[in-house]
DNA sequence: TATAAAATTGTAATGATTACAAAATTATGT
DNA sequence: ACATAATTTTGTAATCATTACAATTTTATA
């Protein structure tokens, strides 16, 4: 993955901060929060500001290379994978997993009344790892 | 709909505030926010406190007679309809609509790795009313 | 190199939610 | 009915994530 090129082709000037933040998002698929991103990167970029993380993620979202995962009321997570997929959060370990889904299988009724542009599917429950450990 | 009975059978003592708040939620299906609920009810119950609205909604959720709709990052909405359904938000008019969905049609891959207990489906786009008006 | 534009940063402001303790209401036992 | 305990409601203060904004730094342009 050529991050500089990816940013450039999406009209984002590839500054050091932007490259590092996108690289972090792409490599860390657990859908991190702003705080996690900041905490993990500040040792690498000592001058990094949390405002920059907010600004940069907003820029990524506006330019379509990042999306938000709001599976929980009180935390916004970020995702660099733009292919359509669903999310599962285990309420035991707190991990958020990607779920493959065939959107063509989704059959809604009365959908002729709406023009759907974006679909978010959020599942919650227990992951197998937690189910096994608990028993 | 007998609200007093509904609260009682769900282990919620039916105080005036609780009855009015649930009644409001049940009658106003547009998925209101805490602020909307408070603003609309305070004329009816002049002593009402916003803290009570928060407390009461949390109580409803804990006892399974209300759920949250977090289709947008920055606003929590509430819903007294507990039958499984999806939500659509029109980004033109801002309305949040209920969508009937047959959950049995949902086919996820690799779902053997998870025990799903709750499913939230959020759709966004334009409602027909807004599409027609714009053209 | 000088100047302008863009990006980053730190701090302050905002706004939603929660914590908490006092006041009010309701239930219980005599 | 009265006293006391338990529950509910309320108002205020604290918390926490996010945004606004202006100063500083970096990058681009002539
Ligand atoms: Mn994902
Ligand atoms: Mn609904
Ligand atoms: Zn788990
Ligand atoms: Zn609309």
Describe the structure.
2 copies of one chain form a homodimer. With 135 residues, chain A is of the alpha+beta class. Chain A folds into 2 domains: 3-79, Arc Repressor Mutant, subunit A (Orthogonal Bundle); 86-134, Dna Ligase, domain 1, CATH 3.30.1490. Chain A is 35% helix and 25% strand. Chain A is built from 5 helices and 5 strands; from the N terminus they run H-H-H-H-E-E-E-E-E-H. In chain A, strands 4-3-5 form a 3-stranded mixed sheet. In chain A, helix 2 crosses helix 4. The longest helix of chain A has 13 residues, at 50-62. Chain A is globular, with a radius of gyration of 17 Å. The model of chain A has no long low-confidence stretch (mean pLDDT 94). At the A-B interface, strand 1, strand 3 and strand 5 of A face strand 1, strand 3 and strand 5 of B. The complex binds manganese (II) ion (MN) (2 copies) and zinc ion (ZN) (2 copies). The site of one manganese (II) ion has 6 residues of chain B, from loops. The structure holds a DNA duplex (30 and 30 nucleotides).
Q: Kindly report the oligomeric state of this protein.
A: homodimer
Query: Terminal Cα separation of chain A, in Å?
Result: 41 Å
Bound molecules: manganese (II) ion, zinc ion
Label the structural class of chain A: alpha+beta
Instruction: Return residue spans of chain A where pLDDT drops below 50 for at least 5 consecutive residues.
Output: none
Shape label of chain A: globular
Average pLDDT figure of chain A: 94
């Amino acid at each position: 993955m050529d991050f500089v090129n990816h940013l450039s082709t999406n009209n984002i000037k590839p500054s050091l901060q932007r490259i590092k933040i996108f690289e972090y998002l792409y490599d860390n698929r657990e859908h991190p929060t702003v705080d996690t991103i900041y905490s993990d990167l500040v040792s690498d970029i000592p001058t990094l500001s949390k405002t920059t993380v907010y600004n940069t993620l907003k820029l990524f979202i506006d330019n379509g290379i990042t999306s938000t995962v709001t599976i929980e009321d009180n935390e916004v997570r970020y995702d660099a994978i733009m292919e359509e997929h669903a999310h599962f959060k285990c309420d035991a370990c707190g991990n958020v997993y990607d779920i493959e889904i065939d959107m063509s299988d989704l059959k809604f009724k009365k959908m002729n009344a709406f023009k759907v542009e974006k679909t978010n599917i959020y599942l919650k429950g227990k992951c197998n790892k937690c189910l096994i450990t608990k028993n």
